[in-house]
Amino acid sequence: MTGLRILVGVKRVIDSAVKVRVNSAQTGVETANVKHSMNPFDEIAVEEALRLREKHGQEAVPEIVALSCGPAKAQETLRTALAMGADRAIHVKTDDALEPLSVAKLFSKVVANEKPNLVILGKQAIDDDANQTGQMLAGLLGWPQATFASKVEVNDGKLQVVREVDGGLETVSAALPAVVTTDLRLNEPRYASLPNIMKAKKKPFQTVTPADLGVEIRARLQTIEVVEPPKRQGGRLVASVDELLDKLRNEAKVL
Amino acid sequence: MLATARRRLFSAQAARWYGRAARDGRFKTLGRGDVERLRAMAAPETVLATEAVGGSADAAELEGFNVDWLSKYRGSSQLVLRPKTTGEVAEILRYCNSERIAVVPQGGNTGLVGGGVPVHDEVVLSLRNMNKVRGFDEVSGILVCDAGCVLEELDNYVAERGYTMPLDLGAKGSCHIGGNVAANAGGIRFLRYGSLHGSVLGLEAVLADGTVLDNISTLRKDNTGYDLKQLFIGSEGTLGVITGVSVVTPRRPSAVNVAVLGVPSYEGVQRAFRLARARCGEVLSAYEFWDASCMGAVLGHQGLKHPLAGEHPFYVLIETSGSNKAHDDEKLAALLEELLESGVVEDGALAQDESQIRRMWSMREGIPESLGRTGPTYKYDVSIPIPVLYDVVGDIARRLEDAGLYRAGDAARPVRLVCGYGHIGDGNLHLNIVADRFEDRITRVFEPFVYEWVASHRGSISAEHGIGQMKRDYLRYSKSPEMIAYMRRIKDVFDPNHILNPYKVL
C-alpha cells in the first residue's frame, strides 16, 4: 500500500457531559459559558487515522490532516487533534451557522486541494445529530462511502469496513478514495500526551475562509422554535393493589 | 513507664485479637415495653423492630444498619428508628437517656472505622428521613439543611445555583452531610476549600438528654464565646446527634482542567507539588498521587485505558479550577511543560473534555474499590510530614518480606499488595495492604508498628477517617494522656450516661 493520505473532520460541540439548556429566546441552546469539546465521534475518527498509521507505518500513511469548519474557537478542537497526533490542521474560519451541506461543500473543496484518498468523519455531531455530512461529501465527490464503521481495514488500496446493522454485522468493501464515518464502538480514543501537546504547538496550522475556497455559505433551513422535552412527572406511591387498579382505570385510563 | 506502656499495648492488642469491647452491663437490654414507647414517638413506617422485641421486621431488614459497608463490623441491634424531625430525635434520646438505652447515630453508613454501626445491641438512630434542604442564600452561598441529606444531592442542588459543596469524596452518592460533619470528613477538595471546621457555620444537635442545641448560625463571623459546634465536628456521634447543618459553599469553578502525570520517584512527586503550587497556586484544586500497584489494580478492575504510554512508579493527578479557562490553560500548560522538560515527570496526559476528566478522576477514586476487589484490604489513613510520607509503605513491605509473607509479584505469599495513595497536598497517606484474608499473623507484622511509626514522626493515626471502633485502642499514639483525660471530661458534660455511640473513640 502506498501513500494513504487521510483527512479527518473534527467539530467543536457542547461537551457531551454538559446538560444542555434551551436559550430564553427559544431559538437554540445556550452556548455562552458552556464547556465545548471535540465531537466524540470525531475523536474516534482521529484515533482511527492514528491507528491506521501505527498499523501500516509512517511511510504507508504519510499524512493525517485535521479539518474543522467554524468560529475562531474551533482552533482549540484542532489543537486537540494535533495533540492526539494529527500532522497538521486546516481551519475554515466562519461565524456563519453551518448546515451539513455547507460543511460537505467546504470539505469537498479542501479535498480537491489536499488530495487525500481517505476521509474519516464522525457519523454525526452530537449537537445537531444530523448524520448527513459524510454522505453528502461522498455524493459531491462521487466517492464510495462506508458509514457507521465499527471496524476499518485498508489493504492494497482497498477499504473494508464492518458496520453494525440491526440484527448483526455487515461487511462492505470499496476502492479508495472513499469516505468513512465512525460509529461509537470503532475504538477508544487516546489521551493527549504532554509531549504531543508540546509538539502540537509547532505543527503547521492553516486558516482559510469559505470565500478562499469559493464556497458561499447559505442557510437552507430555518429554525422556528426550540423547546425542552416535557418534564417527567414524579412517580407516586400507592397504598394497595386496589388503589393502583383504580388509578390505572380512572386516571391513566389504560385498563 | 515502658513496662506500663507495653502492658497497655498488650491489652490493646488483646482486645483486637480476642474480640471487640465487651458489652457494658450498665446499659439496659431493650424490652418490648421500651419498643412500644419508642414506637409511639414516630410514624410507624419509620420504625424497624425485630420479632425478639415485639416487632415484625426480619433480621435481614436490619442487616444494612447492623453491618458497615466493608462488612468488617457487625452489631446486633434489634431496633432501628428513622425519625423525621428534630423533635422526634429529642424525644427518643430523652427516653433512651432516662432508661440507659445505648444509641448509635447513623448517617449513610459509609464510614471506614466502624463508627456508624452498633457494636452490640445499641438502638440505631438513622437520620435518613431527615433529608430536606432548609434554605439557601444565593448571595452568600450559605446552605442550611437536615443532617440526612446525601452529599451528592446537595452538590447537585447548589450546582444549579452556581455553587459547589466544599467537600467531595468517593462515597458522595450515599454519605450524609451530618455524617460527614460528625466524622469531620476530608476528601479531595480539602486542598482547596479546607476543613469542615472552617466551612461549617452552624449546627443543630440533640444532646443525650434531649436538649436541642440550636447553633444553626449562618454568620461567617461570630466571636461570642466558646464555639461549641466545633466539638461536634469530628465527635463521631459521641457527644450528640447532629440534626441540621449550615455550611458555606464556594462558587462553582467554571473552568476545570485535569492532568495525570507519570513520575519516576516519590521525590519527583514532591518536587512536582512544589512547582504546581508555585506556578498554579491560586487555581490548584487537587493534587493526588498513587503508586504503580494501585494503578495496576484500578486499570484491571475498572476497565479503564492506561492514560500514558508506559508504566511509571508513581502517578499524580493534578486539577485546576478557576473562572477563566484561557488563563488556567496557559498557566497549567506552562507548568506541565516545565515539569516535563526538567525531567521531574516522565510523561503525562491532559484531559481534553469532560468525559476524560471524569475517567481520570475515576482512576484515583476507583482505587479503594479496586483494591477491595483484589482481596481483603487492611486500610490505614494517616497524616505524616510530606517528606517521609511514602517511606512507611516501603518499611511495611520490608517487614512483611522479612516475615516471609510478601514478595512483590509472588502470588504464593498471603500478602498480595502493599500500596499507597492519597492527598499529598494535605500530607495524608492511604496505606493499604491487600491479603488473601484477614489473619493475625499478618496483622501482627504492621500493628501496632504502623501506629508507632506514625507517632515517631508526630503524625496522626487518623487523618480523615476518624477513630470509631477500629482505632480506639490506638488513640494514645496521637493524643497525650492529658488530652484524652480532657476529652473524657467533655464527654461527661454532654453525655453523662455515655449512651451515645458507646465503645467508640474514647
UniProtKB/TrEMBL annotation, chain A:
Pfam families in the record: ETF (PF01012)
Subcellular location: Mitochondrion matrix
Gene3D superfamilies membership: HUPs (3.40.50.620)
InterPro entries in UniProt: ET-Flavoprotein_bsu_CS (IPR000049), ETF_a/b_N (IPR014730), ETF_b (IPR012255), ETF_beta_N (IPR033948), Rossmann-like_a/b/a_fold (IPR014729)
Note on how the cofactor is bound: Binds 1 AMP per subunit.
GO CC term (a single one): mitochondrial matrix
GO molecular function: electron transfer activity
Gene Ontology annotations of biological process type: amino acid catabolic process; fatty acid beta-oxidation using acyl-CoA dehydrogenase
Entry's transmembrane regions: none
Needed cofactors: AMP; FAD
Domain Electron transfer flavoprotein alpha/beta-subunit N-terminal: 26-217
Subunit composition and interactions: Heterodimer of an alpha and a beta subunit.
PANTHER family per UniProt: ELECTRON TRANSFER FLAVOPROTEIN BETA-SUBUNIT, ELECTRON TRANSFER FLAVOPROTEIN SUBUNIT BETA
Protein name (Swiss-Prot/TrEMBL): Probable electron transfer flavoprotein subunit beta
Protein species of origin: Coemansia javaensis
TrEMBL record, chain B:
EC number, as in UniProt: 1.1.99.40
Catalytic reaction equation(s): (R)-lactate + 2 Fe(III)-[cytochrome c] = 2 Fe(II)-[cytochrome c] + pyruvate + 2 H(+)
InterPro entries named in the record: FAD-bd_oxidored_4_C, FAD-bd_PCMH, FAD-bd_PCMH-like_sf, FAD-bd_PCMH_sub1, FAD-bd_PCMH_sub2, FAD-linked_Oxase-like_C, FAD-oxidored/transferase_4, Oxid_FAD_bind_N
This protein's UniProt keywords: FAD, Flavoprotein, Oxidoreductase
One Pfam match: FAD-oxidase_C
Cofactor entry: FAD
A GO CC term attached to the entry: mitochondrion
Residue span, FAD-binding PCMH-type domain: 73-252
GO MF: D-lactate dehydrogenase (cytochrome) activity; FAD binding
Family the entry assigns: Belongs to the FAD-binding oxidoreductase/transferase type 4 family.
The protein, known as: D-lactate ferricytochrome c oxidoreductase
Lineage summary: Eukaryota, Fungi, Fungi incertae sedis, Zoopagomycota, Kickxellomycotina
Gene name, Swiss-Prot/TrEMBL: DLD2_1
